[in-house]
From TrEMBL:
Organism of provenance: Marilutibacter aestuarii
Phylogenetic placement of the source organism: Bacteria, Pseudomonadati, Pseudomonadota, Gammaproteobacteria, Lysobacterales
Pfam family, one: FixQ
Domain of life: Bacteria
UniProt protein name: Cbb3-type cytochrome c oxidase subunit 3
Record-linked InterPro entries: Cbb3-typ_cyt_oxidase_comp
């Protein structure tokens, strides 16, 4: 009985999250997050450059 309730709650959370991510208002933010791995990293400053 308890395992069925837990399964139902997890299924509802999964479907609710999936529906939430299909919200058109989130598209620009999600597209920007999807491009993050493809962007070049900014060069790191050395400790000497940060003390100036």
């Amino acid at each position: 009985m308890v395992s069925g309730i837990v399964t139902l709650v997890l299924l509802l959370l999964f479907v609710g999250g999936w529906v939430h991510l299909w919200n058109p208002r989130l598209k620009p933010e999600l597209d920007a997050a999807a491009r993050l791995p493809l962007e070049e990293d900014a060069p790191l400053e050395t400790p000497e450059e940060t003390q100036r």
